[in-house]
Amino acid sequence: MAKKDLYINYDIESNFWGEPGTNGQHSFYQLIHQGTQLIPCDFIGFNHSINPLSNHQDLLISNVFAQTDALAFGKTRKQLEAEGVDESLIPARTFDGNRPSNTILAERLTPATLGALIALYEHSVFTQGVIWGIDSFDQWGVQLGKVLANRILPELKSKDSPLAHDRSTNELLRRFRQKA
User: Which runs of E-coded beta strand occur in the chain?
Assistant: First the structure.
């Protein structure tokens, strides 16, 4: 398929991002639990920590298992009522569940394990691209960013060079040039 003929008339998306352990629960787990879009996710845990501290590994793994349990089964109005939760709070504390997740539990984080995880996600990206009919590694948007960055770079160093970008970029460049 030629580039000019590339057209996908359905939603495609795949993002790989995350946060170690309990750091993520206040930043994005809430979105995964009660957001308006279904976000399938993977949880990666290890039986043994590479930096053992007291019971921290057990705390982290218990959170992996708890989050996947909550995503799978949620919390119903009936359960909340049985717990005596105030009626006004029930809508905010109800979770549908049935949110897909995978749990990958490895023995420990080693170079080999990390390599296997990277290979897994690279293969996943490749496979999705084949299914969607796109080249997942042909990233023209990223390339455009590199071209623009090379155009902007000399303007960062010279306070006198003219700025020929949009108003927002020009203003950001002016502010950057004024740094002490």
Answer: 41-48, 101-108
Q: How far apart are CA 56 and CA 75, in angstroms?
A: 27
Taking the C-alpha atoms of residue 94 and residue 124, their distance in angstroms, rounded to an integer, is 33
For residue 7, the model assigns a pLDDT of 64
**Location of structure tokens 């939603």:** 11
Give 3-state DSSP helix, strand, coil % of the chain, rounded to 5: 55, 10, 35
Strand partners, 54: none
Which residues pair with residue 106 across a beta bridge?
46
Query: Diameter of the chain by CA atoms?
Result: 70
Tokens of 154: 């000399």
Handedness of CA 74, 77, 81, 82 (dihedral sign): negative
Q: How far, in Å, CA of 132 to CA of 12, rounded?
A: 8
Model confidence, pTM: 0.73
Chain centroid to Cα 1, Å, comes to: 30
Task: Specify the 3-state DSSP secondary structure of 41.
Answer: strand
User: Across all residues in the chain, what is the average pLDDT?
Assistant: 88
Going by C-alpha positions, the residue among 99, 42, 103 that lies closest to residue 72 is 99
Residue pLDDT, tens place only, 24-58: 777 788 888 888 888 899 999 999 998 888 888 99
User: CB-based burial of residue 16 (10 Å sphere; 0-12 exposed, 13-18 middle, 19+ buried)?
Assistant: exposed
